Amino acid sequence: MSARFFSPLGNDVLKAIFLVCLADGLVGISYGSLAVAGGFPLWVPLMLSLLVLAGASEFLFIAIVGGVAARLRRRRPDCWSMRAIYRSGLR
């Protein structure tokens, strides 16, 4: 049996699909590592990846919320949880 029976796509198309999947995986790994390094639990980038369908918005969310959290941590070092950050506000 030939490979054409199982895959109606040509080798060029399969190679392009593989390269796009590889690039998407690398972006996902960098997004997850950026989020976890920013202090977010692992479930946050996973849920954002599933629920937000715009890649740049996910990166912006992590950067903006992570920046606010870092600013609040400088003001109140005892404030580490997201619930405490939400209650304290940006005063």
- Shape category: elongated
Q: Give the low-confidence spans.
A: none
Range of strand content: under 5%
Helix content: over 70%
- Overall number of strands: 0
**Quaternary state of the chains:** single chain
Count of separate DSSP helical elements: 5
**Helix-strand topology string:** HHHHH
Chain-averaged pLDDT: 76
Main structural class: mainly alpha
Largest sheet: none
Radius of gyration: 20 Å
Number of domains: 1
N- and C-termini, Cα separation: 71 Å
List keywords for this structure.
5 helices, 91 residues, mainly alpha, elongated
Describe the overall structure.
The chain is an all-alpha fold. It has one domain. Helices cover 75% and strands 0% of the residues. It has helices spanning 3-6, 11-37, 43-51, 55-75, 82-88. It is elongated, with a radius of gyration of 20 Å. The protein starts with a helix and ends with a helix. The model has no long low-confidence stretch (mean pLDDT 76).
Summarize the structure.
With 91 residues, the chain is mainly α. It is 75% helix and 0% strand. It has one domain (3-88).
Give a topology summary.
Layout: H1 3-6, H2 11-37, H3 43-51, H4 55-75, H5 82-88
Helix pairs in contact: 2-3
